[in-house]
Amino acid sequence: MPYSEKVQKVLDYIGAQIGDKLRLLKEDVEIVGYLMPREEVDFGDSDVLVLKLDNGYNVGIRLDESTTVERLQERVSLGVFPSLREVEQDTTLPSISIISTGGTISSRVDYMTGAVAWHISPQELLFGVPELLKIVHLRNVLMPFRLASEDMSPLEWIFLAKKVVKLISEGDSGVVILHGTDTMHYTAAALSFMVRGINVPVVLTGAQRSSDRASRDSDLNIIGASIAASRMNAALVAIAMHGTPSDEYVTLIRGTRARKMHTSRRDAFRSINEPPIGRVWLDGKIELFSDLIKPRSKDPPWYDAVFEEKIAIIKTYPGSNPELLDLLVDRGYRGVVIEGTGLGHVPTLTLDDSKSWLPKIERALHEDVVVCITSQCINGRTDPYVYRNGRILLKAGALFLQDMLTEVAYVKLGWLLGHDFDTQSVKAMMLHNFAGELGTRETYETFP
Amino acid sequence: MNNQMKIKVRVGLEWHQRLCSRKLFCHCPSNLNLEPDRWITRKLRISSSELGELDPAAAVEAARSRTFNYGFNRNSSCLVELDEAPPFPLNEEALMIALKMALYFKMRVVDEVRVMRKTVIDGSNTSGFQRTALVALGTPESYIKTSEGNVGLKTLCLEEESAFIVEKGGAEASYKLDRLAIPLVELATAPDIRSPEQAAELAEEVGLMMRLTGDVQRGLGTIRQDINISVEGGSRQEIKGVQDLRLIPKIVELEAQRQTNLLELRDELKQRGASSFDKVVIILNNALKNTRSEMISSSVEAGGIVAGLKLPKFAGMLKRELQPGRRFGTELADYAKVWGGVGGIMHSDEMPRYGLSEDDLQNVREALKAGPEDAFVLVTGPKDRAERALAAVYERTVSALLGVPSETRRANDDGTTSYMRPLPGPSRMYPETDVPPVVITSKMLSEARRRVPPLPSHKLEQYKSMGLTEHMAAQMLRSPMFQLFEEAVFEGADAVMTASTILNSLPFLRREGVSVDNIPEDKLKELFIRFSRSGLPREAIDDVLKIMASGKSPEEAFLELSGRAVDEVELRTFVKDLVESKRDFIRSRGLEQAHKALMGVTMSRFRGRASGNLVSKILWEYLKEVE
Predict the structure, then answer these.
(1) Cβ-based contacts under 8 A for chains A and B
(2) Which residues of B touch A65 (CB under 8 A)?
(3) Average pLDDT over chain A, rounded to whole?
(4) How far, in Å, CA of A74 to CA of B357, rounded?
(5) Which residues of A touch B113 (CB under 8 A)?
(6) How far is the alpha carbon of B358 from chain A, nearest alpha carbon, in Å?
(7) From CA A329, how far away is CA A325, in angstroms rounded?
(8) Residue A40 contacts B, CB cutoff 8 Å
């Protein structure tokens, strides 16, 4: 209920609806403007009418005893986008499909209200980024759901894995997924594991700026992702986002190495513990930095899309209460990723015994829960041998995940436990490199 | 001139006044003294829907992404100016200044201030829009009195300053971000202005009132006027970047002239039977393959094209003068430069030029199928740019058949104007959803009301009651140092002496080449207060100022002037001996305590001959050696 009951009553009485032109007389000032909606989640005053004046400004005028309001005949329609002409595409270009999952990148703006609508057809997308017409044949734009990325769950990952395999089998040279940025790296990791035998690039991209503004980053990101998906000689899941705050190139990051490292910057995504795999320039040039990437092939991929949701990420910190782990074990959780400190430590030989995680971890292991260790440092490898606490933890049976990212570990653990494997096998496979999530060489330049 | 008298011009003014406050949507200081030490490059993308283009194929052609370089310094810009982080809530201090001004001008403050995004695509905002909010509306009471009648005030907005342009090329432009997002108040009048002289009078009065609020930045560029000119039968123009008040009458006059001439041009075209035509751009590389035009052959060699557009029945029109030194062809060239990023155009009314021979021109006319009554425009450069340039030339030519298009224009130094961009309509404005609306409370309003300054007429009376003559009072009111004057007098300075120093001595010395502008305002204030007590003759103040201009304090300047200033060697010898003799005392009391005590001893000896600052400084030097 955006307007207050009191105001709504007045509006109902004069028959005014959103978009109607109103004339207000407040003391000796006349104000004429179109009635605008208030925000759904409102930080203003719901007794205040929002009017769009003829000069384009919105202003708020309080409807009080000194104000008279009258409805005029004129009105504007809100949120109506012009219908677009059918696009003629060049079908000799490599074909790709775009799956739009929601998030900033899939949206466009109703300039009247600032409200958001979604891209749902090839026309709309080609309209916004007409350069694509010269790069790809856009076979499909699918919007199976539209979710802010923080609202996504493993169910959507499974859906996407299946969809990607289907699109590739239909002949696409690559697939682009438009995604909210917050959890894009989780989805990228999930697809890296769930799409097996991948033979073409699957490129995720998103936007850090809203699409209404001329400075939006989405267009370069979509162009870069489309060039990569259609032309790059590499078969993997990757993220393509701005490489710098400038509109110069997109950086390609392996799906199991990406992490959103800034809340708002265009170049928020960084490749962790591995240099980025490449760069795509606006003029179409693709640079690949590694020759260890599997090339494209004709062999079709398949999906292995399962997930055990009874797993969790826990972080340890000074004063952290190890009972958290007990709660999970009591509730039947089958796996846990503990983001420890430094090289992968958890509070162990604490002065206050109740703060030691060791007994709780031992209990969890005893009850067949897979306990994995990653590091809060994000950058660098875990190592159990350097300090005593690490050795104790290793001896107890915890799994040190080398240089794997916490988020990737979570996704991988859920994926493995989703299968009918025994615990020993799951543990062994956690340390098997499926999709570049584990590395053995960290070189100087990977940590800027 | 006679023609101009026939048409009716409606003129409104718009001021953009920078405020003394941090930036509007972040916590960066409004500091302009820092050179950029980093640069980023951006492309601003214009949606085809914004250009009104609904055919995607054509949208490819229309999509025009220009490249902008932005320079910044971390001491004056953060991620918000870089469009790399969302804005903070509206700066409440700036809002308070705007509220105060609105009340001063007797305007009606809205109940909820809502920040909008106004699309700006010339690169002057990193985001592609300017944040702006309407704070107050005009009432029957809000007007400025002038000798030719009242001029109503229409709107008062609080908005972001744009980035400062450093370099402008065809396809690229460079901006500095230090100025971006400094808070501005935009005040717009109703189109009530009847004469150029009235515009100037009004501008001066409003500038004065803005300054009287005390919270505005001063100096060149801190206040800018835009002029809104509507010509009956013509159209509305917004003329930007008028730095000098004195140009206003000239600009208004020349704009009326331009529109009159454009309307005449239209009528004449009608008589000739000219009507809307199709855009046919012909590539002339072949037709001009033998040209000796250096400009064309070098551009073609670099991979570019030379393209032509026929303007049916426009022969002779492109050389038609619209404003002194500016022809219709100049307008077309402006469009080509702005939209195509080319250096300019070549047209038939200026031929032969650019090394084009009669044969060349004949070949061009043949290729374009242009007869003697047709004009043509040629552009050379990279294909995409040349084509965009000619598309813009076409648009401008077709609109000349209808009348005068509404535009945003830039004021040139001679009072003429150049095309900048189309006039933004209300559809260019939409809500800034990242900034919450601000509910204006009665508490805020009463706080603002408390800060409203007295009207200029009241101030004038007040100054006169201090002893200033009518003329002096009026001058003082218009001086940028009026606040300094008031503060000094309030603290005991003689009003007439202070005013005459500000109004006469300082400008006089400045002309003489004395760097009086180096004297900080607080030192000036101290001078006025001390001088009033010193008993020195008024004439001595120029000499004091000369000494102060070299960086001395008022006290030092007085001493130097009186010839009684202590010899520093004498002072140092005394202090050194004193410290030497009091070592134990100093050690037992500690440096702070000892400093206080020894200051007393030294000052009683040198009072009237050495400044406290100097004594203190020297004393510290020797005390530190005791450690």
Answers:
(1) 163
(2) none
(3) 93
(4) 60
(5) 59-60
(6) 41
(7) 6
(8) no
Which whole number is the average pLDDT over B257-286? 92
**Distance between CA atoms of B191 and A49, rounded to whole angstroms?**
28
Q: How many CA atoms lie within 13 A of A66 on its CB side?
A: 8
Q: Does domain B276-400 have CATH number 3.30.1360.30?
A: yes
Note if A316 is an active site residue: no
Identify the band that residue A83 occupies on the pLDDT scale cut at 50, 70 and 90: low
What CATH fold (topology level) applies to the domain A311-430?
Answer: Rossmann fold (3.40.50)
Same fold, A95-303 and A311-430: yes
φ/ψ region of A230 (left if φ > 0, alpha if ψ in -120 to 50, else beta) reads alpha
Q: Which residues of A touch B433 (CB under 8 A)?
A: 39, 114, 210
A159 or B279: which carries more pLDDT confidence?
Answer: A159
From the list A52, A172, A182, A187, the catalytic residue is: A182
- Contact at CB, B126 and A215, closer than 8 angstroms: yes
CATH classification of A5-75, choosing from 3.30.450.20, 3.60.20.10, 2.30.30.520, 3.20.20.70? 2.30.30.520
Exposure class string for A196-230: b at 16+ Cβ within 10 A, else e:
eebbbbbbbbbbbbbbbbbbbbbbbbbbbbbbbbb
CB contact under 8 A, B129 and A213: yes
The distance between the two most distant Cα atoms of chain B, rounded to a whole number of Å, is 107
Q: Which residues pair with A373 in a beta bridge?
A: A338, A400
Q: State yes or no: pLDDT of B260 exceeds 50.
A: yes
Burial B183-193 (b: 16+ CB within 10 A, else e): bbbbbbbbbbb
Fold of A95-303: Rossmann fold (3.40.50)
B60, B111, B157 ranked by CB distance to A60: nearest: B111
Question: Which residues of chain A have a CB within 8 Å of the CB of B46?
Answer: 214
Distances (CA, A) of A150 to A156, A179, A183, A266, A354: 12, 10, 6, 18, 34
H or E stretch covering B155 = strand B149-160
Closest residue in chain B to residue A116, using alpha carbons only: B433
User: pLDDT averaged over chain B?
Assistant: 88
Chain A nearest-CA distance from B314, in A, is: 35
pLDDT given at position B47: 60
Residue ranges per structural domain of chain A: 5-75, 95-303, 311-430
Q: Which pLDDT score, from 0 to 100, does residue B62 have?
A: 47
Active-site residue (options: A52, A163, A181, A187) = A181
Q: How many residues does chain A have?
A: 448
pLDDT digits (tens, 9 = 90+) for B9-68: 888 999 999 999 999 999 999 988 789 999 999 988 876 444 444 444 444 444 556 789
DSSP state, A347?
-
Interface predicted TM-score (ipTM) of this complex, two decimals: 0.93
Residues of chain A contacting residue B444, judged by C-beta atoms under 8 Å apart: none
Contact between chains at A113 and B430 (C-beta distance less than 8 A):
yes
| Residues 542 through 571 of chain B touching chain A, CB cutoff 8 Å | none
Q: How confident is the model at residue B218 (pLDDT cuts 50, 70, 90)?
A: confident
> Which pLDDT score is estimated for A272?
97
Task: Report the number of secondary-structure helices (H) and strands (E) in chain A.
Answer: 10, 23
> Percent of chain B scored above 90 by pLDDT?
54
Rounded to a whole number of angstroms, the distance from the CA of A23 to the nearest CA of chain B is 14
Rounded to whole angstroms, the Cα distance separating A368 from A366 reads 5
pLDDT value of position B569 = 84
Cβ distance of A85 and B56 shorter than 8 Å: yes
3-state secondary structure of B501: helix
Give the predicted TM-score (pTM) of the model: 0.84
Q: Where are the domains of chain B?
A: 2-22+89-162+181-269+427-431, 276-400, 454-562, 568-626
**CB of A149 closer than 8 Å to CB of A182:** yes
Q: Which amino acid is at A42?
A: D
* Residue A283 annotated among the catalytic residues of the structure: no
Answer whether A112 touches B (CB < 8 Å): yes
| Cross-strand bridge partners of residue A98 | A141, A176
